[in-house]
Design a protein that fits this description.
The protein is mainly α. It contains twelve helices and no strands.
Amino acid sequence: MMKTDPTPSKPGFIIWALRLLGSAVFLAAVFYFLPLGDVVAAARKLQPNIWLSALAIFLGGHVLASLKWRLLISAGAEIPIYTAIRAHFAGLAANLCLPGVAGGDVVRAGIIIRSASDPARIAAGSLLDRLLDTFGLLILSLIGGVWAIGFAVFDMRLAIIIGLVVLGAAAAIGGYLILRKMRIDAVQKLTGKIDALIADFSRRPLRLMACLVLSMSIQSAFIATTIILARATVADASIAQWFFAWPLAKLVAILPFSLAGLGVREAGLAAILSGFGADPAGIVAASLLWQSILFAGGMIGGLILLLTSQKAPAGDLPDHAGGD
């Protein structure tokens, strides 16, 4: 039986309130420089059927993301597809109120961890899933930057693009190496499992490569969806520029400074794409429309969890829901 606390914990509420305040501050800064009326006027140009189509693509992308995660945590043999999809969408709901994507990862792992024979593999596979997504976003940003500027014009902007991508990759690798050096039993156990998981996939490199390609394909579909929203709001950035800016803005939005990246993503996209001459009002409008799809997807994830809770096997449910 699932034990729940009907009231959120005080620390959890404080964190949520601080993130909401962070979003308000970033949005206030955005609208200090951009007329709110221009952003609203651009957003109103979007037809409802385009928004619904974008939501459908978002949900379909996350179904594929749940299958990728399932492959990484169990090689697809142990966790039922239904359970993986249900847990993944529960994580989407958790991302609305927990710090960064890690909060969603904890919740989706908690849904299935009791039904798994090797819980440590779930934690290691989830972290590997996040590392693959981050690496894929950096690759897409590099491709977009080179595509937008071109090697023929090797100016300071291209040098900055390459430097940011290399720095991001170095930070991810460095962070993992630091974890491996930490003398904490839980951390040592986790990194040991990750090493074993990487060794396992290294014997089947095509499977790991397939997961990376799938991650990049899903993110590319999300970028293309944002471009469709941007075209509807007459935001005039090119496809290449979106492929450069969108992954970087997503990585920045992961930081636990705001509610689901609200405000941070908009500020990042406007700052990057306005440097290419794009209309920042249209860019912010498209980003806010994408943000509305993120929130709608999270609420649908919560609804899926609620409707399937009574039908799910007892082993699929976490012991507690603290911190949600």
